[in-house]
TrEMBL record:
The keyword Repeat applies. PANTHER family: ANNEXIN. This is Annexin. It comes from Salix suchowensis. Keywords: Annexin, Calcium, Calcium/phospholipid-binding, Repeat.
Length: 316
């Protein structure tokens, strides 16, 4: 369920384009106008505004926004103006090759996308950046984590609800054997199961494994694996079980302690605003006993704060 709401009064894309152009005039940008317009327009409306802006002013609205805005607000608005596939492609490239490598962000995006979505990402990634996604993963990841990601983006997985109960039991037995081995971890077993099986299969696997061994699959992964490889496996398992719980947990980690992980905060709020952000809010409140808008308000400031709270449809 989306938190996103259209403006109560209908405005034309042409009027929005004109107001945005006025906001760019003079000394400095009127960021309040940018936020008040763009944070309250859905994807179709944003596309129409961009088309009208180019028609009226012979200029690219996204380039103008990149020139006029700064800091976290700039990052959030520019991500908001992209299509879902453009967001994934851009974020993956920045996470894998940017000034600050963020392998966890790249891992989370890859591990929460369907085979169809990954295929689209790969198709757009190569012509956009002149290199294949596989190459950037090869260069900026290592060991079991690298093998896992390369396998995950190469394999087409079934995404439906049906499961093969015999295969589920075989997988549970294979993972249970890992826990009783005396030497080393059989990474290939985890890689094969978690790159080839559907979400429905993994949910059933967790249940069968618990009945068979008396152990939780997530805790077994934590005990038997480490680093980014462990993070990838847990991300897939948690997302398969409940995407809203997964994102609530990610947001909590991004906002607790000293300092805020603004990149993660922006990525989750922007990419989920038109999908299931209301459910994520509900799960966040249930799990952490604090309203998500209150947390966002306390961790951000100025127009950046206003923009994110608008995505949350909050008057906080």
């Amino acid at each position: 369920m989306s938190t996103f709401t259209k403006p109560s009064m209908q405005t034309s894309s042409r009027d929005d384009a004109v107001q945005l152009n006025r906001a760019f005039k003079g000394l400095g940008c009127d960021a309040a106008v940018v936020v008040n317009i763009l944070a309250h327009r859905n994807a179709s409306q944003r596309d129409s505004i961009q088309q009208e802006y180019e028609t009226l002013f012979s200029d690219d609205l996204k380039k103008q926004l990149a020139h006029e805005l700064h800091g976290h607000l700039k990052k959030a608005v520019l991500l908001w103006m992209k299509s879902p596939i453009e967001r994934d492609v851009t974020t993956l490239r920045q996470a894998l090759t940017g000034p600050i490598i963020d392998v966890k962000a790249a891992t989370e995006i890859i591990c929460t996308r369907t085979s169809s979505q990954i295929r689209q990402i790969k198709q757009v990634y190569a012509p956009t950046f002149g290199t294949r996604l596989e190459f950037d993963i090869e260069c900026h990841t290592s060991d079991a984590h690298k093998k896992f990601l390369l396998a995950f983006i190469a394999i087409t997985r079934y995404d439906g609800p049906e499961i093969d109960s015999v295969l589920v039991e075989d997988d549970a037995k294979a993972i249970n054997k890992i826990g009783v081995k005396k030497s080393g971890v059989d990474e290939s077993t985890f890689i094969q199961i978690f790159t080839e099986r559907s979400s429905a299969h993994l949910i059933a696997l967790a249940s069968v494994f618990h009945k068979m061994s008396g152990k939780e699959l997530g805790k077994t992964i934590k005990r038997e694996t480490s680093g980014n490889f462990k993070y990838a496996l847990l991300t897939i398992l948690q997302y398969a079980d409940d995407p809203t719980k997964h994102y609530a947990t990610v947001l909590r980690k991004a906002t607790k302690g000293l300092g805020t992980d603004d990149s993660t905060l922006i990525r989750i709020l922007v990419t989920r605003a038109e999908i299931d952000l209301q459910k994520i809010e509900e799960e966040f409140l249930k799990k952490y006993k604090r309203p998500l808008p209150e947390v966002v308000h306390s961790e951000t400031s100025a127009h950046y704060r206003a923009f994110l709270l608008s995505l949350l449809d909050s008057k906080y």
